[in-house]
Amino acid sequence: MEYIFVRLEDLLRVRHLITCFTREANGDFITPSLETHDFWEMVYVRSGNMMFYEEDRQGLMQPGDVVFHAPNVPHGLGGDGEHPFSAFIITFDCNSPAMTALKGKMLHLSEKLRKLMEELIEERNVSYANIFMPLTTLKDAPLGAQQMLGLYLEQLLIGILRQQEKESQTVLYTTREELDSKLAAEVRSYLEEHLYDAVDMKLLCEKFHYGKSRLSEVFRRAYGDSVMHWYLVKRIEAAGQAILCGEGSIAEISARLQFDSPQYFSRIFKKHMGVSPREYRNVKR
User: What whole-number distance in Å separates Cα of residue 259 and Cα of residue 196?
Assistant: First the structure.
């Protein structure tokens, strides 16, 4: 048998890293002036709100957002004037034509890409000393640490390019109203996707990196209801649908939706639907 060797083509290849660090600052921080360099810079917001600046534009970023500054484009960053922030910044050399699609782009990373970003950050933390420059490999760095860091970055960049390809345009959230609207929509989407999970305000605050009062205010303004009451109503509606579809006993449906007990579930269900779960099943037949 003759074996055929197929050469793997590279979409992009990161040749060098220049800096790779986390910047934490207060809301009133701003870079003294725009900087320019002949390599790429990627800035990822881990917590708080952050402003990015380029020659003729600026954007307000929140956790999960990433922005790319192309080589030789003046840029800077700062706080939103109110909240502290934490941002991961990595500068690198990549001459691939594919990178032009990310020039000046800001987008919100998917959950999958955010997890990959955190893995990249963790690999950096165990690989390099905590100094700005030059990147100095730790003596006890894991085997293949530098290569792993490069692979994480390349995988992340390809993932971002794929995400960018699916989106018709990149939206810049430049006002507080736009930011609040986006935050409320993301909280609502998360709750809709986790109707069968035990979600509370503490979990939401940790996930979205906002305080309880701030999340509550933004959500109520957008949807006219408190976060947890809106979530409860949606869970009751899901329970009603499950009852009609015969997806188990009342107790089983109650347990799947994370209610404390069938009795509590029945009481809450009747309060919102006007009848008990058993009566609802019989009435709708």
Answer: 10
Tell me, what CATH number does 207's domain have?
1.10.10.60
Task: State whether 144 and 258 are in the same domain.
Answer: no
Same domain, 97 and 185: no
Please report, for the domain that includes residue 121, its CATH number: 2.60.120.280
User: Which two tokens mark 48?
Assistant: 């708080």
Domain that holds residue 45: 16-166
Is the entire prediction scored with pTM above 0.70?
A: no
Amino acid at 32: P
Q: What is the pLDDT of residues 116-169, one digit of tens each?
A: 999 999 999 999 988 878 889 899 999 998 899 999 999 999 999 998 887 755
Q: Please indicate, yes or no, whether residues 159 and 86 belong to a single structural domain of this protein.
A: yes
The token pair at 264 is 């509590």
At 54 the three-state DSSP class reads: strand
Token pair belonging to 46: 């881990």
**pLDDT averaged per 10 residues in sequence order, the chain, 285 residues:** 87 92 92 92 95 88 94 93 92 91 91 95 91 87 92 95 74 63 88 87 84 87 92 88 83 85 85 84 65
Cα separation, 111 vs 142, whole angstroms: 26
Q: Is residue 110 part of a domain?
A: yes
Tokens of 85: 């922030």
pLDDT tens string 255-271: 888 888 888 888 888 88
Q: Does one domain contain both 56 and 181? A: no
Give the residue among 14, 40, 10, 12 at the shortest CA–CA distance from 148.
Answer: 14
CA distance 228 to 201: 7
pLDDT for the residue 172: 46
Residues 163 and 80: their CA atoms lie apart, in Å, by: 27
